[in-house]
Amino acid sequence: MALFGYSLKERQTRELLALGVIRFLGGSFLAVMGALVVYLVYRGGSAISWDFLTEYPRDSMTAGGIWPAIVGTFGLAAGSMLVAIPLGFGAAIYLAEYARPGPLLTVIRLGVNNLAGVPSVVFGLFGLAVFVSFLGFGRSLLSGCLTLGVLTLPTVTAAAEEALRQTPASFREAALALGANRWQAIRQVVLPAALPGMLTGAILALGRAAGETAPIIFTASAALTLNAPESVFSEVMALPTHIFNLATNGAHIAATRPQQFGACLTLIVLVLGLSLFALIIRARLRKGRKW
Amino acid sequence: MSEARLLAPKLSPTEKGFRLFFLAAAIVALGQMFLIALFLLNEAAGLLATAPLGDFLFSKDWYPTYEPPEFGALALIVGSVVVTIGSSLIATPVGLGLAIYLAFLAGRRKREWIKPAVELMAGVPSVVLGFIGLAVVAPFLQDVLDLPTGLNVLNASFILALMAIPSIASLGEDALAAVPRDVLDASYALGATRWETIWKVAIPAAMSGLSTAVILGLGRALGETLVVLMVAGGAAQIPTSIFDSVRPMTATLAAEMGETAIGSAHYHALFALGAVLFVLTLAFNLLAYWLGVRWRRG
Amino acid sequence: MVAGGPIIEARDVDFYYGAFHALKGVSLDVAAKETTALIGPSGCGKSTFLKLLNRMNDFVPGARLSGEIKVAGRSIYGSDSDPVSIRRLVGMVFQRPNPFPKSIYDNICYGPRLIGARKKADLDVLVEKALKAAALWDDVKDKLTKSALDLSGGQQQRVCIARALALSPEILLMDEPTSALDPIATAKVEEWIKEADLSIVIVTHNMQQAARVSEHTAFFYLGELVEFGPTMEIFTRPRERRTENYITGRFG
């Protein structure tokens, strides 16, 4: 068997070694992440209470809770979807249903793909230059929502287009053959079939928007607000920027450690909760789909 | 051609209206790209009045608030490159290892749990990872290695790697899982071991998908802001060891943009930095896209 | 192994996929240097049986086996036997041509390189020998560095045969090797099977093919080996009613 010089023994040893290294690499990452999650839950869990979630910060942030940051994060995330969903779904419908394949479509799709990889801090700069300064919205909930909306637009568009493309062509053909026009076919047949998939993509984007920090540091966020936002032109607090401020800028970095861990855990639960929700819906859809 | 026009159905006003809206949305989605580039370059161009492009790119003196200010971005660019390379040295082997583990070794039961968990990890907000680097890893490094500060290239590379690994692993597993089963069977039937099949058949066949995964992961590390802002230490210097602090471009932007007067020379310099970042990540993405296209063709 | 004796001996083989009883008490001897055809309606267990002979069913989750299979006198499911070394001895050609996305040359060299063949001169000889044995040498000798995927389907399948032959296996398993090929390519592969100086086990759903290429035929039905004997006898005077029904086309 050692016809050409490699014995089976040698090859089996190499196999064991190589697969061992692979298992070690994968396992050590999972172990590190697992340990971090456990540690975060442990430190954060002891900080979280009902009061922590529902009170304003007190005593230079060393006491009280994170309520305004939670509200701000919800506001920013929801507002960004008001921007991204109509535009993103509209663009996706155009790309999937109306546009003819050709160089223009390639360019649009390339643009959308590339935007998804542009660093979020660059979107922050864009928001600062356009919404805060050029359009004069100032540092506000509105500027933050628009910036986050622009940031998530490529993701929402790409996911929605994908969902539309997955509905079988026979659906459209059947509707058109029954005398429907293009828009009727889309509205009555294609959209109902594709909408759950499109929304899944939007929820994933919503989670991303809720967790973003860099784009809102200079477009929306205040270190501390003592009232609920009065209008869309108010500055707001947000969980990510709150964590960042407490951990790096505050006067009492050590004293607010429990608050920092608590806010981290809250943010993770919020963001991963949304992603998990979307992943579960997606899995359900794939199972339940009949075509 | 004239017959084709005769056959085209007449559009109702509603249909026309919606079509117009969808087209407008698509134009916004595309226009955004040009708008971002336009605004960045426009604001960046203001810098050229103060500092020539050569000084900006090749001087390492970044003293934006001195009198007179100096805007040499070299140390910042090097800072970004160093932590990106550092994170890639960790994230590439671990991410690909995890991908191979998921695709070939985990078995169906384990994969059904681990794959979604890894995908969820890709969604952990970067501020949380930055916080972990700051509050957990930095004190640990400082104590164990007896360093002046735990906020340095090593820590930033480690945390950035934690962020890039899930996306490399997830995309990499997709690429490996797309290798046709019958090609793998052919290798096994020729008496190849599992590792020989992975190394000589699966990895070459999935190569462009795997490289796309790595490049996208690295592009993410290059553009990541909060992690390096919180963990890299913030010193605008060219590092001489992995225990030195650096100030990557993204961290500089996030730290200084909030405190500068709109329209000042410093403001324009930061936009120039943003433009450099934009161009670099665009290059990364185009490379990934190009590899992806080749992958689909191959 | 006694000269002229069986090269494969299967005794009381039962095989399960999870709860599904795929093979029921199959015992069968394959004669050395001859061609044995496995026939039967789809789902009858013939492919499953074939894949047991080089342990390709090891990859199927939840698979269980009882009974014994010996190749060249050694039990291949014994605790000391190793699938990797068995597969060097027992080559396999699949239904769909599955060349690696590499050059023709590198496809053929894949197996030898696994066991340490490195010298170009050795490999050149091996490649030529294998391609000649697969009756492909004249077609491809000038384009060995071209991708195997650029060849026609029939040529790809013969690359796969040559690739298996490059390891000089004792036995070649063929799982519906021509069902994805056109008639001309099929004829060439059949021609090759008839002339090959090697023990071959071939699964086919094509009665004529079994009759043309094999010396022995085994008929499987619902996981059982119904009848096994010289091909001439099976096709002219089967002993079993079920065999007769099948070869005259009544099972559909």
Short synopsis of the structure:
Chain A is mostly helical. Chain A has helices spanning 8-47, 50-54, 67-98, 103-115, 120-134, 141-166, 169-177, 182-211, 214-217, 239-249, 257-288, and strands at residues 57-58, 63-64. Chain A has a two-stranded antiparallel ribbon.
Q: What is the domain tally of chain B?
A: 1
The run of helices and strands of chain A is: HHEEHHHHHHHHH
Q: Which fold does the CATH topology of chain A refer to?
A: MetI-like fold
Strand content of chain B: under 5%
Biggest sheet architecture of chain B: 2 strands, antiparallel
Structural category of chain A: mainly alpha
Under CATH, the homologous superfamily of chain A reads: MetI-like
CATH top level of chain A is: Mainly Alpha
Which percent bin holds the helix content of chain B? over 70%
- Overall spatial form of chain A: globular
Can you tell me the CATH architecture of chain A? Orthogonal Bundle
Q: What spatial form of chain B do the alpha-carbon principal axes imply? A: globular
Oligomer: heterotrimer
Question: Mind explaining what this structure looks like?
Answer:
The relative contact order of chain A is 0.14. Chain A has a two-stranded antiparallel ribbon. Chain A is an all-alpha fold. Chain A has helices spanning 8-47, 50-54, 67-98, 103-115, 120-134, 141-166, 169-177, 182-211, 214-217, 239-249, 257-288, and strands at residues 57-58, 63-64. In chain A, helix 8 runs antiparallel to helix 11. Chain A contains eleven helices and two strands. The longest helix of chain A is centred in the N-terminal third of the chain and has 40 residues, at 8-47. The model of chain A has no long low-confidence stretch (mean pLDDT 85). Chain B is globular. A two-stranded antiparallel ribbon of chain B has the order 1-2. In chain B, 74% of the residues lie in helices and 1% in strands. Chain B has 298 residues and is mostly helical. In chain B, strand 1 (62-63) and strand 2 (70-71) form a beta hairpin. In chain B, helix 12 (249-256) crosses helix 13 (265-297). Chain C has a single domain (6-247), classed as Rossmann fold. Chain C is globular. Chain C has a six-stranded mixed sheet, sandwiched between helices. In chain C, strand 1 and strand 2 form a beta hairpin. By secondary structure, chain C is α/β, with parallel strands linked by helices. In chain C, helix 3 (104-114) runs parallel beside helix 6 (153-165). Chains in contact: A-B, A-C, B-C. At the A-C interface, helix 1 of A face helix 2 of C.
